Amino acid sequence: MYLEDRTVRLQLWDTAGQERFRSLIPSYIRDSSVAVIVYDVASRQTFLNTIKWIEEVRSERGSDVIVALVGNKTDLAEKRQVSVEEGEAKARELNVMFIETSAKAGFNIKALFRKIAAALPGMDNMSMTKQEDMVDVNLRSAGNYSLQSQTESGGCAC
Question: pTM of this prediction?
Fold first, then answer.
């Protein structure tokens, strides 16, 4: 992807969240710079499970890894079980990045990867990405949370 004057190449590994794949996680994250931990906003249990996945990443990589907590499936607003505030609070508590997305609708996917790329080592001297690609999860519209960026579809992975 292109960030201002730089090209950033992201290699994604989707490890799936099922417990049966848990033993494979250390080999995936051993040399990773970023871990994206995704939960379903319509499933409280997947949100609760993120704590153990973040612990797994940190036990393998310590603090030498960028962690992003992602609430996915925002297109299922009527089934939501985890609020934006809960996601933000958990991210603050665990000192990780936070964003909500909808892979199905392509909502905030590009913004997620731009945010991750900008946080990579060596990118700190770069100015923030363009305003139209940034996300403000604190904006409200008619009682619902409105995220600014409508972007292309994609998946998230460690």
Answer: 0.74
Q: Which domains does the chain have, with CATH numbers?
A: 2-145 (3.40.50.300)
Other C-beta atoms lying within 10 Å of the C-beta of residue 30: 9
pLDDT in tens, 60-110: 888 889 999 999 999 999 999 999 999 999 999 999 999 999 999 999 999
Distance of alpha carbon 91 from alpha carbon 61, whole angstroms: 18
CB 108 within 8 A of CB 77: no
CA distance 104 to 37: 17
CB-count burial class (<10 Å; 0-12, 13-18, 19+) for 75:
middle
